[in-house]
Design brief:
Length: 60
């Protein structure tokens, strides 16, 4: 991942955290926190590939 992309994702994570803190509706705040976590993950992946693990429960 290009360094500019990592910077973008880090900035977006901060913006979403701020929006979560400012939200008066708990559901809206939760959505902003979820987005913040996604952006933090994307910023932290850097040059590594995204995890190949499934995001949901594995069913037999």
């Amino acid at each position: 991942m290009h360094e500019d992309n990592r910077i973008y994702f880090a900035r977006r994570a901060v913006e979403e955290q701020t929006r979560a803190e400012q939200a008066s509706n708990p559901l809206v705040a939760d959505i902003h926190r979820r987005l913040q976590r996604v952006y933090v993950e994307r910023a932290s992946v850097g040059e590594r590939e995204a995890s190949a693990e499934p995001s949901g429960p594995v069913r037999p």
